[in-house]
Amino acid sequence: MEKIAEISNRILPLLFFLFPFVPTFMVVDRLAVGYIYFSVVCLIIFILISYQKLYLSLDFFKSRPLLILYFIFLMWQLITITNAFNFIEGLVEFSQYLTLFISICFIAFLAPGYKRISLFFIPIVILGAIETLYSFSFFLENYTFENGIARLRELQGFASNQLFNSYAILLKIPILFYLIFNQKNKYIRFLLWTLFSLMLFMLLVLASRSSIYCFIILIIILISTLIFQSKFFSKKILSKKDVLIIILISIFTSGVQTFLYQNSDDLSVINRATSLNDDSTNYRLENYKEAIQGIIDYPLLGVGIGNWKIMGIKYASSRMESYEVPKHTHNDFLQIGAETGILGLLIFISIFISIFISIVKEIIKKEDKLLPLILFLCLVVYLVDSFFNFPRIRPYSQMNFFIITFVYSWMISQTTKDK
Predict the structure, then answer these.
(1) CA-CA distances (angstroms) from residue 389 to 50, 63, 281, 383?
(2) Average pLDDT of 12-36?
(3) Which sign, positive or negative, has the C-alpha torsion 75, 81, 82, 88?
């Protein structure tokens, strides 16, 4: 019976990552479906762990500042609702954050049940492979050498948005690296390197500028780690061979994408990455200016959680067309600041600082520093996504934060065992 409970507890966290395969029920925006699904998963987990008489203790939360800070952020949201123009909108968005909080609590609670982190990484990489192959199949169906392929809706994959799909694939690349670096079998390594090539190719085809920049940042971090690891660490983290292969594959894949898109200059990776003066960039800059002004006008409580889509209209009215409203600022930090005030923004930022502090502690204390490095790369991906997009409230994007939470909690549990 204990063995069955142990196996079920390892399966339970993975249920959150089955969301891409949940039917859309003919809706265009999967947001509501996502929160209903996460709520059902939370209910299942609650029933099963309660049956096993397992409970989240106060010590559990104390050892994971991320959860405490997220809870404080929730409480501050309730306060800002009192200042909201539309109380119901605030309550709806608060309920979404509450669902996410309960989800990450259960994920953090179940993570220590895994004996090896690779047992979690393998299904996550399989999910990344499915996401990639699904989008790649549409690329093969629609690509022509004469015209390349436009940023079709079909390329959005399971995510229903190309930005979400890009970052869903991108965050799994560091996890794929972890499996490659720890794999000795040359045939499996070849298979994993091939998967990396395909994931990177689809990342370039999806043509999200910020995700391309983010990947470049990851490469710079890896190269910097390789250069300075002998100076700061007694045991090397990365091998020159692995980093060189990553660089060569990246150059080759970029060349292939550029060649295939030579008749569609605006979508080739080089032109896409270097072209900043366009409508998309200008739209974001306008959003940023308006959100900053909102923070200046409402510094204490903001406009109320979930209310920027309403209050932001007065800042964007001069550039609005038809029924378009500034629902998202395309920068989670600025939107949180505008909706919850400066204090709310600081609490939100502290959530990520707590993860970073844990990474630094692990790097200092642990002999094996590869996992903290991989978690840092995942954190960088999520932060870049948050800076240019709006993953904070999108269920598909929050799966990335679930992965970070799982690794964070598992890493802390291993440190606790060592004491």
Answers:
(1) 37, 30, 12, 10
(2) 87
(3) negative
* pTM confidence score: 0.94
Distance CA 232, CA 226 (A): 11
Place of tokens 């799909």: 165
Tally of CB atoms within 10 A around 232: 10
Cβ–Cβ < 8 Å for 192, 246:
no
Overall residue count recorded for the chain in this entry: 419
Cα end-to-end span (Å), the chain: 29
Q: Quick: pLDDT tens for 362-379.
A: 988 877 899 999 999 999
Do the beta carbons of residue 37 and residue 19 sit within 8 Å? yes
Report helix, strand or coil for 209. helix
d(CA 92, CA 361) in angstroms, rounded, equals 37
DSSP 378-419: HHHHHHHHHHHS-GGG-HHHHHHHHHHHHHHHHHHHHHHHH-
Instruction: Dump pLDDT digits (tens) for 322-366.
Output: 656 677 888 999 999 999 999 999 999 999 999 999 999 998 887
Any residues with CB less than 8 A from the CB of 24 and at least 6 apart, and which?
30, 33, 160
Angle, in degrees to the nearest 10, between helices 395-418 and 87-110: 40
